[in-house]
Amino acid sequence: MSDTALPQGVSHLKAPARSAASDNAPVAETVADVLDRVKREGDTAVRDFAQRFDKVDLADLEVTPEERDAAVAALDPQTRADTEFAIENVRAFAQAQFATIGGLDDFQPRPGVHLGHRVIPLQRVGCYVPGGRYPLLSAPIMTIVPAKVAGVDEIIACLPPNAHQAMIAGCHLAGADRVFRIGGAQAIAAMAYGTETVPRVDKIVGPGNAYVNEAKRQVFGPVGIDQLAGPSEIYILADSSGDAAMIATDLLAQAEHDVRTRVGLITTDEALGRAVLQEVEAQLGELPTAHTAGPAWRDYGEIAICADENTMIAYSDQIAAEHLQVHTRDPQAMAGKLRNYGSLFIGELASVVYSDKCAGTNHTLPTMAAGRYTGGLWVGAYLKVVTHQWLTPDGVREVAPAAVRQSASEGLEGHRRAAQLRLDRLQTR
Prior knowledge:
Layout: E1 10-14, H1 25-41, H2 43-54, H3 65-73, H4 77-98, E2 104-110, E3 113-121, E4 124-128, H5 139-150, E5 154-159, H6 165-174, E6 178-181, H7 184-193, E7 203-205, H8 210-219, E8 224-225, E9 233-238, H9 244-255, E10 262-267, H10 270-284, H11 290-300, E11 302-306, H12 309-319, E12 323-327, H13 331-335, E13 343-346, H14 352-357, E14 383-391, H15 393-410, H16 413-428
Helix pairs in contact: 1-2, 1-7, 1-8, 2-7, 3-6, 4-5, 5-6, 7-8, 9-10, 9-11, 15-16
Binding site for NAD(+): 128, 186, 209
Organism: Paracoccus tegillarcae
Cofactor: Zn(2+)
């Protein structure tokens, strides 16, 4: 069963057995209760939910500086070096992106009309760091480092109380100002509303499970969010030049994230599709994480055969995959024709795993076809662009008459008077 209707010229060698969209009503109800209680009871509710959901009694919600230092000291030297390598690359890319964002000081569309905008960092952000099935050491790097580069005043990190100690070290090394042992929907509630211990933030970023995602959806408005993230996704576009073993390896690498991961091959070559199908089954037989990757492939795996390159591109843009790899004879040319994706991996040497871990681009990306209208998390997500204007007397003479007429035609007398007043004052001087 597919979430997306097949366009003409596309057929399935393997169709998804299930839809990635699921009934969210039970999750929404549970989350609503968590948010309400944390809003009313603060730290008391947070501790109660930690006991109920995480089976942990929390005396202190915040990780102390001494505990943060101890977590860093406990890191294996190579793990620390690899973590700092990833931080360096993510920081460098975020700095390069930041350098492209500029203020606009004084644009004059008319004489005496001065317009502009400022780029202002957010004051306080909350970074949710998921625990997940594995200690994803790159997770805090992707949300915290761009916030530091953007110049955010204070960065709050929340991670489940049973998260691996290395995750605390990652938050510290990435630059979090404060770290809290709070997970799930209660972490989102604490950051959105504030408690006796956790400060209220202006925006919440970072991926999580269905409860975290639903909590972000419900608190949005009073606080900002980066996006609503569903299960991870990878699709690969390939022609007859594709390497079946490599494609199968990359599909399963992403499938081991979660049993609901969407994985797919879109190809113009049926023989390659059949070879990939065989390779996936063979590799699953000896993959240690097959208990996760196997159900993901069985339920959500897809191999689509397209009549030609244009059909392949159209189907890919319709799916708008979170991660999109291009394995074709001329991957750069193909990349230029694609428009809907979270992040693009051009050529068979560019694997999602490099972006997931340490290459520098962000791995917090849009899923469930959101790539049709948005990109992933980046340094700009921690900035707001706010406009300003100032007028000279000549500027008032330029714009006031049109504003007066427009307000009158709309029946907004107060607006008309505000525009006319300044024009009248100038004329009497």
